[in-house]
Amino acid sequence: xxxxxxxxRRLALTVGDHLRRRGVETVLTGGAxxxxxxxxxxxxxxxxxxxxxxxxxxxxRLALEELGFRKDGRHFRHPDTPYLVEFLLPxxxxxxxxxxxxxxxxxxxxxxxLLSPTDCVKDRLAAYFFWNDRLSLxxxxxxxxxxxxxxxxxxxxxxxxxxxxxxxxxxxxxxxxRKTGPEGGAP
Length: 187
What we know:
Structural class: alpha+beta
Strand order of the largest sheet: 1-2-5-4-3
CATH topology of the largest domain: Beta Polymerase, domain 2
Distance between the termini: 41 Å
Number of strands: 9
Largest sheet: 5 strands, mixed
Oligomer: single chain
Shape: globular
CATH class of the largest domain: Alpha Beta
Number of helices: 7
CATH architecture of the largest domain: 2-Layer Sandwich
Number of domains: 2
Order of helices and strands: HEHEHEEEEEEEHHHH
């Protein structure tokens, strides 16, 4: 298959749907979700698919090979695209909390399961909370500025992770960003 000049979103939809049609259930996570939910404000060149069952690694590899991807270390590469595909082992979780209800994007008959905007914000905040990653904080703010997110759910999750103070900082920055618009200042 020729993937030249395909967007990350289009490729993610195609790969995710192809895996699903081959019986390999996945959820797209990580930077690809940030890119999709921030409308490409933040670029990512990897598609991290969490397998719903660890035994799906081999069928997943075979499905990717059908599309022309080849295994290269832990990633899969295709000669027509700069995007890499990686399988992560289950469960789909953010910090210690499982992701129970992934979002779905449909395009025609294609279907992609991915982190919801709320879970995508939590995923980025986890890197900020635990490793002080400022880029991840900026990504969380970018996703929150462009999507309806459940701040109560994020607050509950942050509290369960012992990160009340950092959540308060995030919430203040998010409120400031709403005042200045989604392209407002960096954190």
